[in-house]
Amino acid sequence: MGQLLINSASINHMNLHVLATDKFKTTTIIVQMEQDLQEETVTKTALVPYVLKRGSAKYPTTQQLRQYLDSLFGAVFHTDVIKKGEKQIIQLQIELANEKYLSDAEPLLSKGIEFLGEVMTRPLVENGGFSPAFVKSEAELLKNKISGLVDDKIKYANQRVTEEMCKDEPYRLLSYGNLEELDQVDPVELYTYYMQLLSENPIDIYVVGDVEQEQVQAEITKHFTHDREQTKELVFNPVQKKNVEERTVIEHMEVGQGKLNIGCRTHTTLVDDDYEALLMYNGILGGFPHSKLFVNVREKASLAYYAVSRLESQKGILMLMSGVEIEKYEQAVSIMKEQLQQLKDGIISEQEMSQTKATLKNQLLEIQDNARTMVDFLYNGRLSGRVKSLEEMLEGIEKVTKEDIIQIANKIEIDTIYFLRDKEGTQG
């Protein structure tokens, strides 16, 4: 990764990755805690990072916690839960000014690591559980996020096509958990569950900035103290559907514009040798403004307000997404299918090849401009068990031929066509 040095070490059965670079004036520390995406634990896992963010044993109120962050030259602390394939990831992240660039010689790195260790390993405990007030208010906020999904029709359609496509697969689950369960989360049970997670599940810590490996290791060893003798490994094994049959789902709602999503199975994930060919395929199909979907569905035929495709590389799914006028639904489906067929038939111009290679390479190189995107790139590799460097990916893309793309195109199968339309219509 250019001038980037990545040093990894195991501390207390956690994986520490130090990315030493003088590119940034800040230091970013990201903790990733991995759990399998599953019905039994999805809601509890979703709630944990938001409860942790509210306070700890040392900073028992959210106000005290924020005041302390302000005293660290306005350090930014953020927690989240995300879905990567069939994994649910708890993220804790702090971004600090680098003390090397300040006249005040405050030991910010040391204090930032101490703070993260505190929040993560010594949360606020009341009567043997998390603070009931924190759990209740964060559960409400998550419920609002889930209920609010229906207000963003693009996100809603994407979740619905995922649920329909992956009916019997963990991937159908929303990373924010289950609406009904959020009312019933018990603070003691949630705390017990989190302590087990902290003891057993894979944890990766990334530190990006102008830092010394030895100092970071010493600070992590000192402040991330929790007994992790019995850790377990979670296998990367996304559920792959063998027999794919195309089906259509039409849903009616108060909408002015139809949302047409076509979910496809690629049978390729980022561990496969033909992954770079899949990236090229998606780039030519709908990843960029010069892609077939954009040019043919949106520009030439004026059928859609937007027409794009997106890959879920950890799962092996390709989503075609568009906003179309309701009466143009059938025409839009047929022209989108036509683009898929063109790729199977090898109707790919030299310009499409070269433009897509150039745009993909730029996209990959831009990863290095941001600490979070660098961590995301590296962590994707770790999760899947196949770590590729940026150079390897760039070389892989350069080598992709038209024949490779035709091969990928012929592996791709339409699974579900989903259309969100108005209540009036009777079409379909």
Give structural notes.
The chain is of the alpha+beta class and 428 residues long. The protein folds into 2 domains: 5-223, Metalloenzyme, LuxS/M16 peptidase-like (Cytochrome Bc1 Complex, Chain A, domain 1, 2-Layer Sandwich); 247-421, Metalloenzyme, LuxS/M16 peptidase-like (Cytochrome Bc1 Complex, Chain A, domain 1). Helix content is 42%, strand content 22%. The chain has 15 helices and 13 strands. It has helices at 42-52, 62-71, 108-121, 132-148, 153-165, 179-182, 187-200, 213-223, 275-287, 292-300, 329-344, 350-366, 371-384, 390-399, 402-409; strands spanning 5-11, 14-20, 26-36, 76-84, 87-97, 125-126, 129-130, 203-209, 247-252, 258-265, 304-312, 317-324, 413-421. The chain has a 6-stranded mixed sheet with strand order 1-2-8-3-5-4, with helices on both faces. Strands 9-13-10-12-11 form a 5-stranded mixed sheet, sandwiched between helices. The protein is globular and about 60 Å long. The mean pLDDT is 94.
